[in-house]
Automatic annotation (TrEMBL):
GO MF term list: ATP binding; ATP hydrolysis activity
InterPro entries for this protein: AAA+_ATPase, ABC_transporter-like_ATP-bd, P-loop_NTPase
Annotated SMART domains: AAA
Domain of life assignment: Bacteria
Transmembrane segments: none
Stored Pfam families: ABC_tran
Organism of provenance: Chryseobacterium lacus
Entry keywords, A to Z: ATP-binding, Nucleotide-binding
The keyword DNA-binding appears for this protein: no
ABC transporter domain residues: 10-239
SUPFAM superfamilies, sorted: P-loop containing nucleoside triphosphate hydrolases (SSF52540)
Protein name in UniProt: ABC transporter ATP-binding protein
């Protein structure tokens, strides 16, 4: 699918990453549209984390080409880092700092001016309902609140793209749904969402889904089209059929 260069947030063409004799990412090609919620799925060892590191400017590919927010993954990694947000399953927060201190710290890293940072921090604390917890250590917060705070921090500087690596691991279904509402809200504001998850029901929330198997993109389409193609009602079964097919071909 070609969106036109001005509408593309991420573009990869035959991206490959080799470690010795092992090919972790094997000639993957795709485009992500600006403002899209793009699911990047795969079993452990499928290559998705290695690929995400490339798109975050943390690793250089062995071959192929790619741009993230218009910047080249070989030559402009620092510009990429300034244009993105990132949240991992561990939530990327400092547990030994308070809520307020985390906002001030990350706001400073993102280059938000002190006066603006004070206003934005107050607004965010009020939005999250953390007025009474702003001076508490993050380690004292419930898991669901940590998750919402971490996501808010990742998009604090309104990046063009935010990368979410297994962001809902370990939280209950209600909190997961609330978190996805935050993702929708960010996408509505024009932020591109690039998310990995092992919860196949969450794939249903994405505009499009890519599924990696053994370093390659095995399929890429909307959840509705994938279910139609694989003649099933669930993304779980789509994933299962792809994984089973890969094992049979070994």
């Amino acid at each position: 699918m070609n969106f036109g260069e001005e509408h593309i947030a991420i573009k990869a063409e035959n991206i490959t990453k080799v470690f010795g004799d092992f090919t972790a990412v094997d000639h993957i090609s795709f485009e992500v549209k600006k403002g899209e919620i793009f699911g990047f799925l795969g079993a452990n060892g499928a290559g998705k984390t290695t690929a995400m590191r490339i798109f975050c400017g943390l690793s250089v590919p062995t071959s192929g080409s790619a741009t993230v927010a218009g910047f080249d993954v070989y030559k402009e990694t620092e510009n990429i880092k300034k244009s993105i947000g990132y949240m991992s399953q561990k939530f990327s927060l400092y547990e030994n700092l308070t809520v307020k201190e985390n906002l001030e710290f990350f706001g400073g890293i993102y280059g938000i001016k002190r006066k603006e940072l004070k206003v934005k921090s107050l607004e965010l604390i009020q939005k999250l309902g953390l007025e009474n917890e702003k001076n508490k250590l993050v380690s004292e917060l419930p898991l669901g609140w940590k998750q919402k705070l971490a996501f808010s921090v990742a998009i604090f500087h309104h990046p063009e793209i935010v990368f979410l690596d297994e962001p809902t691991g370990g939280v209950d279904p209600v909190t997961r749904r609330q978190f996805w509402n935050m993702i929708y809200e960010a996408a509505d504001r024009g932020i591109t969402i690039f998310v990995t998850t092992h919860y196949m029901d969450e794939a249903e929330y994405c505009d499009r889904v890519s599924i990696m198997v053994d370093g390659k993109i095995a399929t890429l389409d909307t959840p509705a089209n994938l279910k139609k193609k694989f003649e099933t009602d669930t993304m779980d079964d789509v994933f299962y059929q792809l994984a089973r097919g890969a094992k049979r071909s070994e």
